[in-house]
User: What shape does this take?
Amino acid sequence: MTEKTLEKNEVAPNNSPTDKLELATKYHQDFLLKSSGEDLVRAINCYMESIRENPTNPSAYYRLAVLMYENKQIGIDGAIEQCERAIELDKNNPDARMYLGYFLSKKGEKEKAKEELKKAMELSPKGTSRVRFVMALELLEKENSNGSIFDLLKGVFYMTQASFMSIFDKAALRMFAKNFMSELNYIRYNTIGKILEGLNFDKDAYRIYMDALDNTKCAPEFYEKMAKIAIKKKRPTVAMQCFENASKLSNNSPHALVNAIDFMQDVYPEKVDELIDYYNLLVMKLPEFSRPYYELGHLYLKKEDYISASNAFRLALDCDKENPFYLNSLAYTYVQLEQYGAAVELYKKAIDKNPDNEWTAIVAQALAAIYYKINNDNEAAITILEYALTLTKEKGPIYSLFGDIYFESSDMDMAIKYYNMALMGGIKEAKIYTRLAMAYWEKNSIEDAIDCYELAIETDKNYEIAYNNLGVIYLDTFKDYDRAIEYFDKAIELNSKYMLAHFNIGRCYADINRKVEAASELQKAIDLNRITNEIDEDIIQERLYKLFDA
Assistant: This one.
C-alpha cells in the first residue's frame, strides 16, 4: 500500500478498512484525536499483525515505533531500529527518515538527526510540514542548550514554514498536534528553570520542574534536574527519591540508572542491597558492557557473598576477557573461596598484562602470599617478590613479606635484614616490630628484642601480642615477676581469650607460689586451647598437676 493511499485513509478515516494496515492507521488516527489508551493498544496490535502478514511494508515499522515508544514498550534504541528497518525497505520514504531523525534527536545524536530530517525534506519537499516541525523544534532546543543565534533563526524559519504548509497537510496536524505542545512546553519549562537556577532561585526552579512533570513527556529529565537542586540544598533523601522516579519513568534507562547509582554510591554507600538491585537492572539493559558486572562483583564482596561475586566477575570477563583488573578481582574472590589453584593462574595473567607498575607490584605480592602461605613454595614466592621490587617505589611492604618468608623458614638473619629494610622503607607496624623482636630473641639479642617490643607497643597500644611476648622476656630471662605479670595482665585486658597470655601468667604465678591463681589461669588456658589448638594440652596439664604435687 502506498503513502498516497494512506493519506486518503487519513483524510477519510470512516472508510471501511480492508487490511490490517488500514485498520491500524484508523486506530492510530483515533488515538491522536481522542488520546484513548484502548485505541493505542489496538493500533499497536494491528501494526504488528500487518508486519507479520506483509513484512516488506516500511510504513508499518516506523508507525509502530512511534506508538510503542509512546506506550513505553520499547526504548529509544528500539524505536531507532524500527525506523532503520523501514529505510532498509524503502530508502526514499520521507516519513521513515523523518521519524528516524526525530528519535535520533531524542537520543541526543543531533547531527545525525539533522541529516535524516534534511533528507526527508528533500525526498518530499511539498508535504513535509511534519519534518519541518521536527527540524524547528530540534534547532530551537539546540539554541536553548547554548546553541548559536543562527540555529535559533533557522528554527523560527522552519517553524513558520511548517505552520504554513500544515494548512495543506492534514496528516501533519493530526500526527504532530499531540507532540508539538509537549515539545514547546519542554523548551519553555527548561528555559525558565535554567534562568531561575542561574539566579539562585532554586526553590522557584524546583516548582517549575515539578509543573513540567505533568505537562511534558520528559518527566525523567525534570526529575533529574530536581534531584540536582535537592543535592545543592543538602536534601539527599529528596534527591534519591527524584533519581528513583527518573529511573522508573524512563523504564530504567541506562542514563537514569547510572545517575541513581552514582548518587547512592556517593551518599549512601552502606545501602549495598539497593545498589545491587540497581546494578542488576543496569546489566539487564546493557548486557554487553563489562563494567556494571565488575561493580556488582565488588558489592557482593562487601556482603561476603563470594559465589555471587565470582559469577559477576566471570560475566565481566566474558565481555572483556583480557582485563587485568577483572582478572585480579576474580582471583581475590577465588582466594576467599579457597580455590587457590585458579587464583594463582588468574593472578599470573593479571601480572602479565601489567597495566600499571605499582598496581602490578601489589598483585605480585598477593600471588607471593599464596606461594609461601598456601603452597609452601618459598622459592616461587621469593622469585615473584624480586620481580615486584623492580616495579615499585613502595618497597617496604615487599621487604616485610620477605621478612615473613625467612622468619617462617627460621632464617633469622635474613628475617632481621628484611624487617629492618621494611622499617627503613617507611612501614611502621606493630606486627613488624614484634616479628623483628622475636627474631632478635631467637638470636639471643635480648636488648634489641625489648626495644622492638616497646616500639611495637608505642606504635599500637592495643597490640596484645607485644605485651605478652615482652612479659615472657621479663619472666624467663630476668625473672622479673612483677613486670612480667604487669605485661600479661595488659595482654589479657586487651584480649580475654588470649590463651598464651593466660598460660604465661599461670607459669608466672606458679614460680612465685601463688598456686590458686596459677591453677585458675592454667585451667583457662586449657579451655581456650581446646578451641585454638595452639600448643599441646599435655604441656599445660603437666604444669597444672605439678602445682599440687606433694
